[in-house]
Amino acid sequence: MSIAVVRKPLRADAARNVDKIILAARQCFREHGPEVPLQTIALTAGVGPATLFRNFADKEELVLAALNRQLRESVDPVMADALADIDATAGLLRVLEAIMAAASADANLLGAVAGRRELLTGITGSLMDSMSVLLGRGQGQGTLRADISMTDMFRLLAMLIGVVDTMEPGSDAWRRPLALIEDAIRTERPHRPLPAHVPLPAPQLQGPQFT
């Protein structure tokens, strides 16, 4: 399990400092990009560098803590509602939407662990367990393909998160790939148009032109 998840209980003042640092990290990564210095984050949080390093050994640990906080705040409530929904497939798709919205909002945090995204396993374990429950229910209800495994779902989710690298932070360009994934995993393809096409960012348009 990730060190970003397992933490000793903190005194009230120390817990407040951790909250301030995580909030500042999310703000700074959004405003300055994945290379933002830890000193900038400490300054934004209103704490000294020593306080930051007392709570987070390095930038990687801070990034994982910030991503974990984002998942707990924005995805966990959606998952709870999905698990209570009679329609498991609809619930699973809402969870995927919530994950992608969070990934887009904090794209620069993901960028800070680019190439080492296996680290995310520690903060997504419980999420994948719940997705497995929804997958099984959807298959039992006949709305999800019976031949899909959780290995497939893990890889499909990894593919979707990779979409974040091909779009502007905060964009909803992920909605079209997610709709294509929905078409692939449902037993019956939905009768609806795909979401609007969003072009690739200009720096990625070198070489062959994409439309």
Kindly describe this structure.
62% of the residues lie in helices and 0% in strands. With 211 residues, the protein is mainly α. The longest helix has 21 residues, at 12-32. The protein is globular and about 55 Å long. The protein folds into two domains: 12-56, Arc Repressor Mutant, subunit A (Orthogonal Bundle), CATH 1.10.10; 68-189, Tetracycline Repressor, domain 2, CATH 1.10.357. Helix 5 (76-84) runs parallel beside helix 8 (121-140).
Task: Describe, in short, the structure shown.
With 211 residues, the chain is mainly alpha-helical. The protein contains ten helices and no strands. The chain is globular.
What is the strand and helix layout of this fold?
Elements: H1 12-32, H2 38-45, H3 49-55, H4 59-74, H5 76-84, H6 88-105, H7 107-112, H8 121-140, H9 150-163, H10 175-185
Helix pairs in contact: 1-2, 1-4, 5-6, 5-8, 6-8
Index terms:
single chain; DNA-binding transcription factor activity; mainly alpha; 211 residues; transcription regulation; Tetracycline Repressor, domain 2; HTH_TetR; Arc Repressor Mutant, subunit A; disordered N terminus
* N-C termini distance: 41 Å
Could you name the ranges where pLDDT drops below 50 across 5 or more consecutive residues?
1-6
The beta-strand count equals 0
The number of helices is 10
**Name of the CATH first level of the largest domain:** Mainly Alpha
Which class of secondary structure composition applies to the elements? Answer: mainly alpha
User: Biggest sheet, open or closed, and with what strands and sense?
Assistant: none
SSE string, helix = H, strand = E? HHHHHHHHHH
- The whole-number mean of residue pLDDT values reads 88
Query: What is the CATH topology classification name of the largest domain?
Result: Tetracycline Repressor, domain 2
Identify the overall geometry.
globular
Beta content comes to under 5%
CATH architecture term of the largest domain:
Orthogonal Bundle
The domain count comes to 2
Radius of gyration: 19 Å
Helical residues, percent = 55-70%
DNA-binding region: 37-56
Protein name: TetR family transcriptional regulator
Pfam families: TetR_N
Keywords: DNA-binding, Transcription, Transcription regulation
